[in-house]
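Quick start: what a row looks like.
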Amino acid sequence: MKNKIKIKAAILEKNFKPLKLKDIFFLDELKKNQVLVKIQYSGICGSQIGEINAIKGLDKFLPHLLGHEATGKVIKINKYNPKFKVNDKVILHWQKSNGVNSKLPQYFDSNGKKINAGWVTTFNNYAVISENRITKLPKNISNKNGILFGCGITTAFGSLMGNINKKNINSKKILLTGFGMIGQIMLALMNALKISDITVIENNNNKLRMLKKNYKNINVLKNIETRVKKKFDLAFETTGNKQLIEYSYNNIKNIGKLVLIGVPHHKQKVNINTLGINYGKKIIGSYGGNIKPDVDIPKIANFVKNKKINLNNFLCGPYNFLNINDVLKKLKKGKIIKKPIIKF
């Protein structure tokens, strides 16, 4: 063992339980394609609540670290890694960019028990990250705003821009289900593109107040009992809710498209009449917007700058890392409606 790096981390030891805050250790040299990053800010995504609640099924990797969107500074690199330099400001993201997957890092607690981790984790103040999960922070993006490029804005941008025709988008009728983090960013992007015929489904009163305050001309539905007079050309489903997926599919045109972004519980089954697919309906999955971080993050940063989108509008905090379980609880209950930032 060559190094001993002490790390403060929030660990998922048991599903449905609060995270355990403890010191862990990295007891090794960096392997090829591994980068040591000092994390400054981490975002909390609904995906982490999904992991805690095992919505994808049995978690085979407990205990393990969490988090997939952050900003920080490169502290150390492997001699075989020419992609980054020490002191580079970087974005950490779960989408795979150029490069190869490194070996997974080996962490241990004070009793020598192994703590599992993937190629990127961000609920820890130092992290060994695979080089293909890191992109340099664009110069016009702050450290706080940069966390949005680890998941939220990249997913929203890729999902939207990959499924619209810019030439005739203003004539399209669009449905957006959910006004959470992805929904908030998607609506801001649509607004920047001057898309006008948009309907949003949301039932959280705090989110509804924010929606109505910031977007005066958006059609808002509080439930799915309301019948629409005209079918939608495009539907973006951000919640993973079974009923909303079915509603979205049933209310797009026969030449319409449903883009699935939200993650449903692994036990949920969707009931649809597939005859619509024979007529031309399409269901498209979005895997983090299907972006290429190295290429797309600078493009999205320029789009944000040119369209004068204020990224601060999507963030709340920063919160103290020691209070991460309280933040997770409030986020789960819908009391926090923007992207919460954790500061180390």
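That is the whole record. The mean pLDDT is 94. Residues 5-150+310-343 form a domain with the Quinone Oxidoreductase; Chain A, domain 1 fold (CATH 3.90.180.10).
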